Each structure stands twice: as structure tokens, then as C-alpha cells.
Amino acid sequence: MSLAIFWFRRDLRLSDNPALAAALANHDQILPLYVHAPQEETPWQPGAASRWWLHHALSDLFAQLHGGLLIRHGDSLATLLELVRDTAAEAVYWNRLYEPAAVRRDTEIKKVLRAAGVKVVSDNAALLFEPWELCNRQGNAYRVFTPFWKRLLEFGLPQPSAGSQASRGKLMQAAEQGTLGAGSVDELGLRPGLPWEGGLAKAWRPTRAGVEARLDEFLAADLRDYAHGRDLPGRDQVSRLSPYLHFGQLGPREIVLACRKVPHAAADFLRQLGWREFAHHLLFHFPHTCEEPMDDRFREFPWRQDGPAQCAWQKGETGIPLVDAGMRQLWASGWMHNRVRMIVASFLTKNLLLSWQGGARWFWDTLVDADLASNSLGWQWTAGCGADAAPFFRVFNPVLQGERFDPRGDYVRQWVPVLSNVPAKWIQRPWAAPEDVLREAGVVLGENYPHPIVDLKETRLRALDAWGRVR
DNA sequence: TGAAATGTTGGGGCG
DNA sequence: ACGCCCCAACATTTC
Predict the structure, then answer these.
(1) Do residues A44 and A9 make contact, with C-beta atoms less than 8 angstroms apart?
(2) Nearest nucleotide (C1') to alpha carbon of A145
(3) Does nucleic acid strand C have an atom less than 7 angstroms from the CB of A468?
(4) Which nt sits closest to A227, CA to C1'?
(5) What is the pLDDT of residues A239-289, one digit of tens each?
(6) Residues A88 and A222 grouped into a single domain
(7) In total, how many domains does chain A have?
(8) Nearest Cα to Cα of residue A90 among A117, A112, A110
(9) Pick from A187, A156, A24, A9: nearest CA to A94
């Protein structure tokens, strides 16, 4: 009778799970384990929105396993050693993580377990390719997206391997785990316990059934005209799969497989999956880039300190409608449309001249899809200090972006309801509207909607000057 | 996965 | 009919 522990981390699914499939193939009985150890991810412990999602993802996995998921809270290595001792497990299986803290921890755990005579098997459930499997002709990591993606496509987009649907009859049932001291998901205390979670619950279905339904719906309807429609936040023609991917309730290879089955071209959408892949590639090879700019010239960049401005940005009270709409969508639903993420990030770093790290930290705490790799890439891209970064002179004008991508103001109306009666012509810049137009719409600037906290033209020039000095 | 300034062109109003 | 000016509309350059 051979027993192995399967350690769930951010691969909270039973399908397309290579390490789980390998464990099932090689052992008679598998103990499914989850260890809650946020302190091991310091300084990037999951934020409130992320914990809310994790709570539901774990509850759902617990249900899929009919309660046969051992839940522990504490030190990962100590927990594994204790369970190996108590169950006489021969092996521990897991799927890899790529954040610097997780890599350090897992390397140490692997070393200690092997020294103790325990077999350790790790595999890749989170990415299309391991970060070290793709390199340029000089054998170096990629720093530019396009050649990276081109190379990946040359290798071919991988699909779930056949063995991943192995028998689940060997998974140890709850009754058999009786003496091992299982905790419950509720005991982990992951839910915010704020009225806030009502907004998250309304916006999301954080379960495997939820993601399967979402994927089908997206591929059937929203993939047509995706290249254009994904830029319109009012239309919301985007996949919304990112939180499921982060927690591994859906694997990227499952997405590739699903795309093969639809009649429309999926290349533009898969390219977005490529950006997620690229972000992991970069964070693995340049692990300091979640804290520090990749471009050393930005180490001494003169970011301002401005608490009130930072706060206005966070609360969506900048007086710039599209920025405020995005920040309010984030707070209310734990998510923001990608086009708007770029706009609010440009506004924070360029118009307010506040550090990208501060923005990244706020996103980290409020996004249900907060992912260290994607978040770091996105913010460094906007700030112009990262790999394949936006050119220094690229400053988004949130008014023009609004007129181009939210021309009727649908998105602004939804998230900044006080502006809902402002005509489309003025909704992206109410401060410029004639008095009678505002009066008729019920808007009183400085009363029920703020005056803009900065002048867009002036702050653009200030940003150009600051970025110009870096060159 | 920009925006603004500057340059060019061509149609129409008008003397 | 002609030249002149104005100014969209579009293209190019610059940040």
C-alpha cells in the first residue's frame, strides 16, 4: 500500500493537473492537502479581495472532493513533515509556483523532504511552458514580448495531456482522514467580514462550475470582434478568467483546448494569455522586479509623496470621470477592465507622479485576480521602467481615452452614477461643460462630484520633463 | 496598448 | 474666372 501526499497550492482543480495525475498514477492512495501559510509569501501576502476568492475556491474544491481535503494552517514544511510521519507517506507531489518567496520556500522544502528519504515530485500546472524552457538564441531570458510569443508559438500551444484525467478513486476520503486533524475552510478566517463582500459575491462565481460556464459563454459570444471589443470597458467583451487562472481553478492549457473547439479565430485572445505567460517568465528570471524597477535608471526617480492625491486616486475621487469609474469598479467588484487599468495607472504614475509601487500595492489588496507576476509587469510597463515598457513619452489622456473607448459614457455612468445624466459630449470632462448642462444633470462640482485634482495638460508636461531627464 | 504640435492639402467663401 | 484666405481633414513629426 503506497501513499502519497498531494499538496494543493494555486492549482485548485482536479482536471489538467499534472502533478496530481502523476500521484494518482504512481500510488495506491493520495492524501489531498491544503496548507494555509500566508506568512511564507511575505511581503506579498494575499490581500483582502484575494482572500475572499481563496475562501470560495477552497470551499468549492472541498466540496468537489466530498470533504476529502485536509486543511491545515501553519508552517508548510512542519505540516508536511508531521503528515509524512503520521501517514508514512512515501512521496509528496505539488505543482510549481514562480514567485521569489515561493521558489525559495519550495526549494528548501524539497531539500529537507528528500534528505528525510521522501520522494518529491513537482510539475507545471500553471503555465504553458516553464519559464526556463523558452530562451532566445543567446540562451538568455526574453525581455520583449513579441519575440517571446513568437518563440512560444513555434513550440506550439500545449493542450492538457491525456493522463490528466486519471482515476480519482484513490483520493483519500474525509472519513479516512479522521485522525489527521483536518481544519475547515471557515477556520482560516479568509473572508473580509465587511459589507464589501456583497459586491464581490454579486460580480463573481468563484467555483469550478462558475469558470466552466464563464469560459463557454465567453468563447461562444465574446470572442467575435474581440480584438476591438476588448478595449471598450462599457461593453466588457473580455474573458474575466484571470482570477480563476491565478488560483488554478482553470489551467491555461484548458483554455487552449477550448479555443480549438470554437469556430472563430482565437489568436488575439490567446495572445493575452501570452502576456500572462510572459509576466511569469520575467518574474522568474528577474525576481527583484516585483519590488524594484527592471531599468536601473529609475532607481532614483523623483516620485512625489502626496497622501491626499494617493487617497483620492484610491477612492475614485480624482474628478476625472474615467479614472474614478475604474477605481470605483475595482473597489466595488474586485476587478477592473484592462483598458481602464492602463489609464488609471498612467494617471497615478504620470499625472500624479506617484510611484508605481504604491499603485501595485493598492491593486494587490483590492483585485480578486491579484497576481504578482502580472501586476509587476503591468505597472512597470506603464511607468516605463520595465521590460518591453511603454516609451517614456506615452501619457494617456483619460478624457481622450474616454471619448475613444467609452464614447457614450456607459462605463462612467455605471460606476459614477452621479454623472449618469450628463450628456455624452461632456461626461468625460464635466468641468468644461456649460453651467446649465451640469445643472440640468444634477451635478454640482465640488459638492457631489469633485473638481479635477490636477490639470491634465500641466501634469503631462511635468511627466515628460521628469521622464526626459531619465534618458 | 498616445497625444499634441506642426505641416500639407484641397474645397469653398468671397472680393 | 481668378487669387486669396480660412480651415477642416489628414499626414508627419516631436515629445
Answers:
(1) no
(2) B1
(3) yes
(4) B1
(5) 999 999 999 999 999 999 999 999 888 999 999 999 999 999 999 999 999
(6) no
(7) 3
(8) A117
(9) A9
